[in-house]
Structure formats: C-alpha cells, structure tokens
Known about the structure:
Distance between the termini: 47 Å
Number of domains: 1
Strand content: 25-35%
Largest sheet: 7 strands, antiparallel
Radius of gyration: 17 Å
Amino acid sequence: MGDRCSLYITFRKSDEPKFCSAMGEDWYDAVEQEEETWIEVSVEEANYAMYEDREKLATAGLVFFGFHGSGGNYKEAIFAACNGVQTEALSYDGRPMIVVDDDGEPDIKMLKEARQYLKAEKEASGIITVRDPWAWRKWEAWNNGSVGAGILVYFYATERDYEGNYEGNLLSVEAAP
C-alpha cells in the first residue's frame, strides 16, 4: 500500500454488486448512510484515494460522487462520475476550492475543474436520486464562514470568462441572488 486517506462515496444501491465485483466484496469499511435507492460508504485507508479504481468505475458507466481527505502527496478533494467521466476538484470543507495568485486572480484551471465537478455532482445526485447530496456541507459552511468566501469567488468568477478575460464591473453582481 502507498499513500492512504479516508474516502466517502455515494452510489445507487442497485449498482452495489457492480462495485463489489470491480473492487472486491469487502472494499469498504462501513455504511455511513443508506436510503431506499442509494448508499454512502466509507473507506478508512483508501490507497491513493482509490483514484485509479474510481476512474475504472466511471469508465464502466457507474455513477457516483464523494470526497476524500488529504494524503501525503495530495490534498482533500471532491469527485463525481457521470456519463463515463470522473471529475475531481480540490476542496475545503466539502466545497470546491479555487486558489488565487498574488494579485488575487483565480486559477482558471481550478475554476474550470470546480464548474465541471458541480455540473457532474448535480447530474450524478439526480441519477442516484439523492435529494440533498451534501446536506452536512451547508451546516459546516455556515458554521465556519466559508459560504461567504465561496459566494465571493463564484460572483467574481462570473465576471471572467474561461480565458480570464474581464467581462464587466464586479460591483454589478451585488443584486445577484
């Protein structure tokens, strides 16, 4: 085993035999939550965040989303798989994280990754039929103030296109919902 971290993953209950076939019968340590149509499981020592395994599951068409903690060589991240593709974005308290440079400019690659992840998570949670996939995140975010930072980055990002070109006055977003 190499670098390990904790990992939580949510998927359709009907897909559990496919996950077990690909990963082995005892691939997870505990069931964290379970509803009629979906299940969330945890892995306490996921080797390299099970990245290669998740890629294979996504390529096989399985739908899932989750997050993993930091390892020795990587930071905590959130991930989602849908339509045969897995997306992953760095995270802070379960929300996409976007680094800014010394001038306060967001990293455009990370912004793209965050947007791709949010789109994939929304689609995956709809397929899995999880009504509120990360309800715990809302409480954590409000608790530590990261929602304000996330909203600021989101509104700031709406003022730039993917190439980083400025598209208007940042103050114009004050009335945005």
